[in-house]
């Protein structure tokens, strides 16, 4: 690039991009269950759950609750979490049912799914990557957004 050329100022980051970044974060820094992040104070990059990794991918730092996000980051976080939930609904349906057998929540909770005692880090990472591929399949044509 020549010094007189202006580099692009805005790149559209998609939910698929953030899902892949969350998967990469978990590969590099570890996976966690029970809370967004492993309770540690000695690193800015603690092991994270799926939702915590999506938060870090969105903001670049840990976020204890989505209400702490700026409006534009909140939109990106919620869209990415929704894309992950859509994937989980079709691949790992896990619905909450009350004592009378009625469905309490019609969507798979990414928190409950992540915290399932039989869940593994590789399953979570693979699900994030596959959800990204699915988002791309549904929303892009030849690498361009639809």
Describe the secondary-structure layout.
Elements: H1 15-29, H2 50-59, H3 71-91, E1 96-97, E2 103-105, H4 110-115, H5 121-139, E3 140-141, E4 144-145
Antiparallel strand pairs: 1-2, 3-4
Helix pairs in contact: 1-2, 1-3, 1-5, 2-3, 3-5
Outline the structure in words.
- The protein is mainly alpha-helical and 146 residues long.
- It has one domain (15-140).
- The protein has helices at 15-29, 50-59, 71-91, 110-115, 121-139; strands at residues 96-97, 103-105, 140-141, 144-145.
- The strands form two sheets. The protein has a two-stranded antiparallel sheet. Strands 3-4 form a two-stranded antiparallel ribbon.
- Helix 1 packs across helix 2 (50-59), helix 1 (15-29) packs across helix 3 and helix 1 packs antiparallel against helix 5.
- The longest helix is centred in the middle third of the chain and has 21 residues, at 71-91.
- The two termini are 29 Å apart.
Q: Which features would summarize this protein structure in a list?
A:
146 residues; mainly alpha; two-stranded antiparallel ribbon; 49% helix
Structural class call reads mainly alpha
Helix content: 40-55%
Number of strands: 4
Compressed to H and E, one letter per element, the order equals HHHEEHHEE
Strand content of the residues, in percent? 5-15%
Count of folded domains: 1
Which value, in Å, is the CA radius of gyration? Answer: 17 Å
What is the approximate shape? Answer: globular
The mean pLDDT is 86
Largest beta sheet: strand ordering: 1-2
How far apart the termini lie comes to 29 Å
Major β-sheet profile: 2 strands, antiparallel
Poorly predicted sequence stretches spanning 5 or more consecutive residues: none
**Discrete helix count:** 5
């Amino acid at each position: 690039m020549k010094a007189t050329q202006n580099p692009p100022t805005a790149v559209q980051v998609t939910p698929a991009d953030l899902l892949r970044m969350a998967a990469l974060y978990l590969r590099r820094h570890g996976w966690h269950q029970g809370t967004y992040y492993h309770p540690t104070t000695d690193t800015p990059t603690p092991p994270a759950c799926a939702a915590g990794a999506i938060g870090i991918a969105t903001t670049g730092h840990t976020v204890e609750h989505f209400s702490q996000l700026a409006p534009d980051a909140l939109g990106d976080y919620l869209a990415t979490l929704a894309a992950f939930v859509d994937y989980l609904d079709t691949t790992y349906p896990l619905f909450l049912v009350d004592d009378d057998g009625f469905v309490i929540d019609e969507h798979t909770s990414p928190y409950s799914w992540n915290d399932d005692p039989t869940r593994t880090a590789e399953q979570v990472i693979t699900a994030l990557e596959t959800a990204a591929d699915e988002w791309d399949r549904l929303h892009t044509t030849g690498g361009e957004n639809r």
